[in-house]
Protein backbone atom coordinates (compact mmCIF):
# COMPACT_ATOMS: atom_id res chain seq x y z
CA UNK A 1 0.00 0.00 0.00
CA UNK A 2 1.40 3.38 -0.98
CA UNK A 3 1.45 6.67 0.89
CA UNK A 4 -1.44 9.10 0.40
CA UNK A 5 -1.79 12.79 1.30
CA UNK A 6 -4.83 14.94 1.97
CA UNK A 7 -4.76 18.62 2.82
CA UNK A 8 -7.12 20.77 4.84
CA UNK A 9 -7.56 24.52 5.12
CA UNK A 10 -7.62 25.69 8.74
CA UNK A 11 -8.90 29.18 8.00
CA UNK A 12 -7.74 32.33 6.28
CA UNK A 13 -5.77 35.11 7.90
CA UNK A 14 -5.89 38.47 6.11
CA UNK A 15 -2.70 40.49 5.83
CA UNK A 16 -0.41 42.64 3.71
CA UNK A 17 1.18 40.30 1.16
CA UNK A 18 4.56 41.94 1.71
CA UNK A 19 4.62 40.54 5.24
CA UNK A 20 5.25 37.25 3.45
CA UNK A 21 7.30 38.25 0.40
CA UNK A 22 9.35 41.46 0.53
CA UNK A 23 10.27 43.15 -1.64
CA UNK A 24 7.61 41.53 -3.82
CA UNK A 25 8.71 41.99 -7.45
CA UNK A 26 5.17 42.92 -8.53
CA UNK A 27 4.50 45.50 -5.81
CA UNK A 28 7.83 47.06 -4.82
CA UNK A 29 8.33 50.64 -5.97
CA UNK A 30 11.18 51.36 -8.36
CA UNK A 31 12.18 53.86 -11.06
CA UNK A 32 9.63 52.34 -13.42
CA UNK A 33 6.86 52.11 -10.80
CA UNK A 34 6.92 55.13 -8.50
CA UNK A 35 3.48 54.70 -6.98
CA UNK A 36 1.24 51.79 -6.20
CA UNK A 37 -1.10 50.17 -3.72
CA UNK A 38 -0.57 47.53 -1.09
CA UNK A 39 -2.20 44.14 -1.56
CA UNK A 40 -4.40 42.73 1.25
CA UNK A 41 -4.65 38.96 0.80
CA UNK A 42 -6.18 35.80 2.22
CA UNK A 43 -3.41 33.70 3.73
CA UNK A 44 -4.41 30.10 4.50
CA UNK A 45 -3.34 28.15 7.56
CA UNK A 46 -2.78 24.60 6.31
CA UNK A 47 -2.39 21.08 7.63
CA UNK A 48 -1.80 17.81 5.82
CA UNK A 49 -2.76 14.25 6.72
CA UNK A 50 -0.34 11.62 5.45
CA UNK A 51 -1.69 8.08 5.28
CA UNK A 52 1.36 5.87 5.70
CA UNK A 53 1.38 2.06 6.05
CA UNK A 54 2.92 2.53 9.51
CA UNK A 55 0.23 4.94 10.71
CA UNK A 56 -1.36 8.36 10.21
CA UNK A 57 0.89 11.44 10.21
CA UNK A 58 -0.32 15.00 10.79
CA UNK A 59 1.86 17.76 9.34
CA UNK A 60 1.29 20.94 11.40
CA UNK A 61 -1.73 21.98 13.42
CA UNK A 62 -2.77 25.51 12.42
CA UNK A 63 -4.16 28.24 14.69
CA UNK A 64 -5.66 27.88 18.17
CA UNK A 65 -9.36 28.45 18.78
CA UNK A 66 -8.16 30.88 21.48
CA UNK A 67 -6.38 33.09 18.96
CA UNK A 68 -8.14 36.29 20.03
CA UNK A 69 -7.16 35.74 23.66
CA UNK A 70 -3.60 34.53 23.13
CA UNK A 71 -2.22 36.51 20.19
CA UNK A 72 -0.75 39.86 21.13
CA UNK A 73 -2.72 42.98 20.14
CA UNK A 74 0.16 44.07 17.89
CA UNK A 75 -0.11 40.80 15.95
CA UNK A 76 -3.87 41.19 15.59
CA UNK A 77 -3.32 44.74 14.34
CA UNK A 78 -1.12 43.36 11.53
CA UNK A 79 -3.13 40.21 10.86
CA UNK A 80 -6.92 39.96 10.70
CA UNK A 81 -7.97 36.66 12.31
CA UNK A 82 -11.70 37.39 12.31
CA UNK A 83 -12.36 34.40 10.05
CA UNK A 84 -10.42 31.99 12.29
CA UNK A 85 -13.34 30.45 14.15
CA UNK A 86 -13.57 27.10 15.96
CA UNK A 87 -15.44 25.71 12.96
CA UNK A 88 -12.35 25.99 10.73
CA UNK A 89 -9.68 25.03 13.28
CA UNK A 90 -8.04 21.64 13.55
CA UNK A 91 -10.36 19.75 15.88
CA UNK A 92 -13.46 20.60 13.84
CA UNK A 93 -11.73 19.86 10.54
CA UNK A 94 -10.60 16.46 11.79
CA UNK A 95 -14.15 15.64 12.92
CA UNK A 96 -15.42 16.54 9.46
CA UNK A 97 -12.95 14.01 8.07
CA UNK A 98 -14.01 11.34 10.57
CA UNK A 99 -10.75 11.66 12.51
CA UNK A 100 -9.71 12.42 16.08
CA UNK A 101 -6.35 13.11 17.78
CA UNK A 102 -6.23 9.49 18.93
CA UNK A 103 -6.07 8.31 15.30
CA UNK A 104 -2.60 9.74 14.65
CA UNK A 105 0.67 7.96 15.24
CA UNK A 106 2.83 11.02 14.53
CA UNK A 107 2.32 14.79 14.71
CA UNK A 108 5.14 16.71 13.02
CA UNK A 109 5.64 20.43 13.57
CA UNK A 110 7.60 22.18 10.81
CA UNK A 111 8.05 24.95 13.38
CA UNK A 112 6.23 26.28 16.45
CA UNK A 113 4.92 29.70 15.40
CA UNK A 114 1.38 30.39 16.56
CA UNK A 115 -0.17 29.95 13.10
CA UNK A 116 1.34 26.47 12.78
CA UNK A 117 1.26 24.99 16.31
CA UNK A 118 -2.09 26.24 17.63
CA UNK A 119 -3.72 22.82 17.54
CA UNK A 120 -0.83 20.95 19.09
CA UNK A 121 -2.39 21.00 22.56
CA UNK A 122 -5.13 18.65 21.29
CA UNK A 123 -2.55 15.86 21.43
CA UNK A 124 -1.49 16.06 25.07
CA UNK A 125 -3.61 13.06 26.09
CA UNK A 126 -3.49 11.31 22.72
CA UNK A 127 -0.90 8.65 22.01
CA UNK A 128 0.66 10.38 19.02
CA UNK A 129 4.42 10.83 18.95
CA UNK A 130 5.12 14.57 18.54
CA UNK A 131 8.17 15.41 16.43
CA UNK A 132 9.99 18.76 16.58
CA UNK A 133 13.45 19.92 15.55
CA UNK A 134 15.87 20.01 18.49
CA UNK A 135 16.89 23.63 17.82
CA UNK A 136 13.24 24.74 17.76
CA UNK A 137 12.52 22.98 21.04
CA UNK A 138 15.54 24.49 22.78
CA UNK A 139 14.87 27.98 21.43
CA UNK A 140 11.25 28.24 22.55
CA UNK A 141 11.84 26.84 26.01
CA UNK A 142 14.84 29.07 26.58
CA UNK A 143 13.36 32.27 25.14
CA UNK A 144 9.55 32.28 25.12
CA UNK A 145 7.85 32.79 28.47
CA UNK A 146 4.40 33.93 27.26
CA UNK A 147 3.84 35.34 23.77
CA UNK A 148 6.71 36.79 21.76
CA UNK A 149 8.17 36.66 18.22
CA UNK A 150 4.96 35.02 16.94
CA UNK A 151 5.32 32.18 19.45
CA UNK A 152 2.61 31.53 22.06
CA UNK A 153 3.73 29.54 25.09
CA UNK A 154 0.33 27.84 25.48
CA UNK A 155 0.73 26.24 22.04
CA UNK A 156 3.77 24.19 22.97
CA UNK A 157 3.69 24.11 26.78
CA UNK A 158 2.62 20.46 26.68
CA UNK A 159 6.06 19.60 25.25
CA UNK A 160 7.49 20.34 28.68
CA UNK A 161 5.23 17.63 30.08
CA UNK A 162 5.07 15.26 27.12
CA UNK A 163 8.58 14.96 25.80
CA UNK A 164 8.65 15.11 21.98
CA UNK A 165 10.94 13.22 19.65
CA UNK A 166 13.69 15.66 18.69
CA UNK A 167 15.16 15.69 15.20
CA UNK A 168 18.53 17.13 14.22
CA UNK A 169 19.76 17.42 10.66
CA UNK A 170 18.04 15.51 7.86
CA UNK A 171 16.51 12.22 9.00
CA UNK A 172 14.32 9.58 7.42
CA UNK A 173 11.71 8.77 10.05
CA UNK A 174 9.68 6.26 8.04
CA UNK A 175 10.06 4.57 4.69
CA UNK A 176 9.43 7.31 2.14
CA UNK A 177 9.25 10.12 4.72
CA UNK A 178 12.29 12.28 5.42
CA UNK A 179 12.52 15.41 7.58
CA UNK A 180 14.75 18.19 6.25
CA UNK A 181 16.46 20.82 8.40
CA UNK A 182 15.64 24.29 6.99
CA UNK A 183 16.61 26.90 9.63
CA UNK A 184 16.24 30.62 9.16
CA UNK A 185 12.56 31.40 9.47
CA UNK A 186 12.96 30.11 13.01
CA UNK A 187 15.87 28.40 14.72
CA UNK A 188 14.61 24.91 13.95
CA UNK A 189 12.28 25.09 10.97
CA UNK A 190 11.92 21.75 9.17
CA UNK A 191 10.52 20.57 5.87
CA UNK A 192 9.24 17.12 5.00
CA UNK A 193 9.93 15.07 1.87
CA UNK A 194 7.39 12.35 1.04
CA UNK A 195 7.47 9.77 -1.79
CA UNK A 196 4.16 9.05 -3.52
CA UNK A 197 3.70 6.31 -6.12
CA UNK A 198 1.96 8.43 -8.77
CA UNK A 199 2.62 12.08 -7.87
CA UNK A 200 6.29 11.43 -7.14
CA UNK A 201 8.13 13.29 -4.40
CA UNK A 202 6.33 16.03 -2.46
CA UNK A 203 8.30 18.57 -0.41
CA UNK A 204 6.51 20.46 2.37
CA UNK A 205 8.47 23.59 3.32
CA UNK A 206 6.53 24.95 6.31
CA UNK A 207 7.57 28.63 6.48
CA UNK A 208 11.06 28.04 5.17
CA UNK A 209 9.18 29.26 2.11
CA UNK A 210 5.86 31.05 2.60
CA UNK A 211 4.64 31.31 -0.99
CA UNK A 212 5.53 30.13 -4.48
CA UNK A 213 6.67 33.71 -5.19
CA UNK A 214 9.39 33.26 -2.55
CA UNK A 215 11.19 30.63 -4.64
CA UNK A 216 13.03 32.81 -7.13
CA UNK A 217 15.82 32.56 -8.08
CA UNK A 218 16.94 34.55 -6.29
CA UNK A 219 14.73 33.75 -3.28
CA UNK A 220 12.63 36.67 -2.03
CA UNK A 221 12.68 37.20 1.72
CA UNK A 222 10.21 38.35 4.36
CA UNK A 223 10.24 40.76 7.32
CA UNK A 224 9.35 37.82 9.58
CA UNK A 225 12.60 35.88 9.49
CA UNK A 226 14.79 34.92 12.46
CA UNK A 227 18.05 34.72 10.46
CA UNK A 228 17.92 36.03 6.84
CA UNK A 229 21.19 34.39 5.83
CA UNK A 230 20.16 30.95 7.04
CA UNK A 231 16.72 31.47 5.51
CA UNK A 232 18.21 32.17 2.05
CA UNK A 233 20.47 29.13 2.35
CA UNK A 234 17.47 26.99 3.24
CA UNK A 235 15.53 28.12 0.16
CA UNK A 236 18.50 27.13 -1.99
CA UNK A 237 18.56 23.78 -0.16
CA UNK A 238 14.86 23.38 -1.01
CA UNK A 239 15.76 24.04 -4.65
CA UNK A 240 18.59 21.48 -4.66
CA UNK A 241 16.44 18.78 -3.08
CA UNK A 242 13.51 19.53 -5.36
CA UNK A 243 15.70 19.32 -8.48
CA UNK A 244 17.28 16.06 -7.29
CA UNK A 245 13.88 14.47 -6.63
CA UNK A 246 11.83 16.30 -9.29
CA UNK A 247 9.55 17.21 -6.41
CA UNK A 248 6.34 19.17 -6.15
CA UNK A 249 6.85 21.89 -3.53
CA UNK A 250 4.06 22.73 -1.08
CA UNK A 251 4.85 26.16 0.50
CA UNK A 252 3.76 26.99 4.04
CA UNK A 253 0.87 29.35 3.25
CA UNK A 254 -0.04 28.82 -0.37
CA UNK A 255 -2.62 27.15 -2.56
CA UNK A 256 -0.16 27.33 -5.45
CA UNK A 257 2.84 25.03 -5.49
CA UNK A 258 5.88 24.49 -7.67
CA UNK A 259 6.64 21.47 -9.84
CA UNK A 260 10.41 21.28 -10.11
CA UNK A 261 12.07 19.46 -13.02
CA UNK A 262 15.50 17.84 -13.05
CA UNK A 263 16.82 20.24 -15.71
CA UNK A 264 16.29 23.18 -13.30
CA UNK A 265 13.09 24.46 -14.90
CA UNK A 266 9.95 24.76 -12.79
CA UNK A 267 6.28 25.61 -13.20
CA UNK A 268 3.67 26.89 -10.77
CA UNK A 269 0.84 24.45 -10.17
CA UNK A 270 -2.46 24.69 -8.24
CA UNK A 271 -2.57 22.71 -5.01
CA UNK A 272 -5.71 20.83 -4.06
CA UNK A 273 -5.85 21.50 -0.33
CA UNK A 274 -9.17 19.87 0.50
CA UNK A 275 -9.99 16.60 2.24
CA UNK A 276 -11.80 15.06 -0.71
CA UNK A 277 -8.69 15.27 -2.91
CA UNK A 278 -6.02 12.64 -2.44
CA UNK A 279 -2.44 12.83 -3.65
CA UNK A 280 -1.05 9.34 -4.10
Description:
The strands form three sheets. Strands 9-10-11-12-13-14-15 form a seven-stranded mixed beta sheet. It has 280 residues and is α/β, with parallel strands linked by helices. It has a single domain (4-270), classed as Ribonuclease Z/Hydroxyacylglutathione hydrolase-like (Metallo-beta-lactamase, Chain A). 18% of the residues lie in helices and 29% in strands. The termini are close together. The mean pLDDT is 96. Residues 44-253 form the Metallo-beta-lactamase domain. Belongs to the metallo-beta-lactamase superfamily. InterPro entries: MBL_superfamily_lactonases, Metallo-B-lactamas, RibonucZ/Hydroxyglut_hydro. It comes from Tepidiforma bonchosmolovskayae. Keywords: Hydrolase, Metal-binding, Zinc.
Helix proportion of residues, in percent? 10-25%
Gyration radius (Cα, Å) is 18 Å
The largest β sheet comes out as: 7 strands, mixed
* Number of helices, counting only DSSP H or I runs of 4 residues or more: 6
The count of β-strands is 15
CATH topology name, in short, is Metallo-beta-lactamase, Chain A
What integer is the average pLDDT? 96
Unreliable stretches (pLDDT < 50, length at least 5) are none
The CATH superfamily name is: Ribonuclease Z/Hydroxyacylglutathione hydrolase-like
Identify the CATH class: Alpha Beta
What count of structural domains?
A: 1
Structural class: alpha/beta
User: Distance between termini?
Assistant: 10 Å
Q: Strand order across the biggest sheet?
A: 9-10-11-12-13-14-15
CATH architecture: 4-Layer Sandwich
In terms of DSSP E residues, the strand content is 25-35%
Query: Can you write the helix and strand succession as a string?
Result: EEEHHHEEHEEHEEEEEHEEE
